[in-house]
Specification:
This protein has about 350 residues and is α/β, with parallel strands linked by helices. It has ten helices and eleven strands. The strands form four sheets. A five-stranded parallel beta sheet has the order 5-4-3-6-7, with helices on both faces. It has a two-stranded antiparallel ribbon with strand order 1-2. The chain has a two-stranded parallel ribbon with strand order 8-9. β3, α4 and β4 form a beta-alpha-beta unit. It is globular, with a radius of gyration of 23 Å. The two termini are about 30 Å apart.
Amino acid sequence: MTPLARGKALEVAAHALEKRADEAARRICEEAGKPITLARAEVDRALATLRASAEEATRAPWGEVVPMESAPQGIGRRAQLRRFPRGVVAAITPFNFPLNLACHKVAPAIACGCPVVLKPSERTPLIAHVLGDAIAEGLEAASLPLDSSHVVPALPQDSSPLVESARVAVVSFTGGAQTGWKLREKAARKQVLLELGGDAAAIVWSDADLAHAARKCANSAFAYAGQSCISLQRLLVHASVYERFKEAFLAETRALRTGDPRDPAVVSGPLIDDAAADRVESWIEGRAGASIPCPTAASRSRAPGERGRATRSRPSRSRGSSWSRRTRERTSTRDRPPAS
């Protein structure tokens, strides 16, 4: 697998995925409940990831010449450093960015010449097959082995062999912290790459443009129902502008369009499944001593056409007097039950 062939495979894969961009966005929307506008943006990001990896396949430093003349014994001598593919990569991805995060793992593996096995989230397996088709088309165009890339849907409890197999050299995991550290223990002799979410904060200072800050913070916190590890999870506001910012932030939050994710105007659609909705409800009901200043009573509705698979919780008010300065409890992948 020469660097040139690997780069060609990824370029062709990007072109193949681009031809199915509308289908891919619809698949993400229908399978993950991601609003269609955000799903289209994810497809664009995935295409950029594939193309960047194609460029790196031929640009990466596969070798290096090291001068040896820093010591008398090295005068007139040179050393050559070469890099080789590490081996089979097991790529385990979450539901919230089911296409682009898969590309983050699969594309660099192919660029480096490593065979890769992708295990997508059991909640979003279908979009992984769209990517698998595109990768297969690229491998075939570059005359590379089709069996160097696989998509293997599996439940979390059935995934241990993928991590523990002696034939796997690298485990790359994005998802919940609890699951990630358990995988690290099981794969102690392998290279393990963990991306376990974030704890994103925003600071609104006294001289901030409050209208702009409120709009950005509301979108960052609640777009895609907050199901992103980079969504806003902590909000720190200067005391001198706190009340004014709070009112602006609440107004922007109320203005966010919720509902059917297939509607291009919708920003926040359903949660991924009933378990996620149950957890959000438990947070709302358990906020003793704090209030959630939203105008509607607590309610929960089933997402249309999902046969009970995904639900959404509407804002509510709980007892208490002080507005919670935490914009929302975390709903990132790292805090979910094991997703892989």
